[in-house]
Amino acid sequence: MADTEALAEQALEAATRLLAQKPQNAQGTLQPRSLDAAVTMQPQANLACISVPGAYAYREAKRALELGLNVFLFSDNVSLEDERSLKELAAAKNRLLMGPDCGTALINGAGIGFANAVARGRVGIVAASGTGTQEISSLLDWLGLGVSQAIGTGGRDLKQEIGGLSMLQGLHILAQDSNTDVIVVTSKPPSPAVAEKILATCATLPKPVIINFIGQGATGSEGNLTFTRTLAETALAAAQAMGASTPLPALDTATQDSFLQNSLQGRKPEQRYLRGLYAGGTLCYEALFLLKDVVNGVYSNLEHGAYALTDPFTSKEHTVIDLGEDAYTEGRAHPMIDPLLRNQRILHEAQDPQVALLLIDLVLGYGAHANPAALLAETIAQARALADAQGRNLPVIVTICGTRADPQDYALQAATLEKADILVARNNAEAVTLAGRYLRMLHD
Amino acid sequence: MTDTGNPLLAGQPPCVVNVGIDLFAETLRQQSITVVQVLWKPPPPQDDDLLNLLDSLI
User: Fold this and answer.
1) Does the pLDDT at position A195 exceed 80?
2) Which run of H or E residues covers position A47?
């Protein structure tokens, strides 16, 4: 209670002033409390980036579409029914619904979500995979090309229940786009009926289409369609379709051979198994698929059936895990943002006497950790000290996904790792292939 | 870009409303993209009609 009337008046004035204030951020910018208010404030808005918890995502995405916005929907845990309904609404409104669980898009040169600083160019991408888009778009940049648009669809778009609605819409957009000469399609293997529909549509388009259904293994060409096994081959095939003849950036043979020889020399006989610790889901999936050609079985949290990893925190024989999966990220940031969990896992693996090799991805770009190589190099040094104390070596291959224009400085990231005696591969397929060569040497 | 009738694809950098994780707004600002951050909070358990009415009033 105020002691005097004057103090009471002051208090009332202060309360009135506070009540009249609009919410602002630290820079003093007004912050709307709803999508509607945001669009009123910024009538030019044409894209909503939505990352609220899944239970609220449908409502926000639906409202955004109703307001005439396109939607990049990072949120997951949206039901298939809701996803389909949002995609039908988007189609009716001639808007894009990228997602749910969409990690990456490049729209008119802007990276949305986790994206790399990729040059603008004439290759268009429609992708049901975030790090797949990051790997292909970054490699296109390395090949001297660029991306017109990279449209994300969300990982479940090619399931039977959704029917590839976003991918079909994206294909038609890129087919009409006068800035796109070559189209890239990438996804985990679709449901057979949806695959048929996508392929039939691609075959009618007046442009070359490079198709990478990761894990399906198709290769070769048919009319305007080219099928590729890996993300790196996909970037290369797109570049070739554009008339470019630049080879993919790659490690030279001497460096690879010397890595294998040195690793073999410091190895104990019981060191027989690979541990792949991935932050990028599609990079992990690709590694798993490529390793199946080399070893009999690889345990993973992405596997179902006999090789499903029963305890995600304990590796078994050859194990490759996606640390971006819910089991690891519940209540904490994704390992691309906060590498703590993966670094702990590296130290854990270093103490396993059966570990022969670590295979790791380092994803750069917008949204990723500011200096991931420094933390990784430090962790590997600690891990090697642990292994060394027990008389073992610990060879490490890291694949960097990124471009020279990324905020983290690609050259600095690579140099930091190399200084720490870590082999830096120039793409995931190269890293996995080299890992496979080493495993063959151990198991022959 | 061929006119698709979708303003997002008209060739200009997007103009974004970010609802959720601040990081995504920051990454867009890093690229000099115009972005409005919504001060989003989970709505209290209400019926949809009421929520829509509130949206139009706030």
Assistant:
1) yes
2) strand A47-50
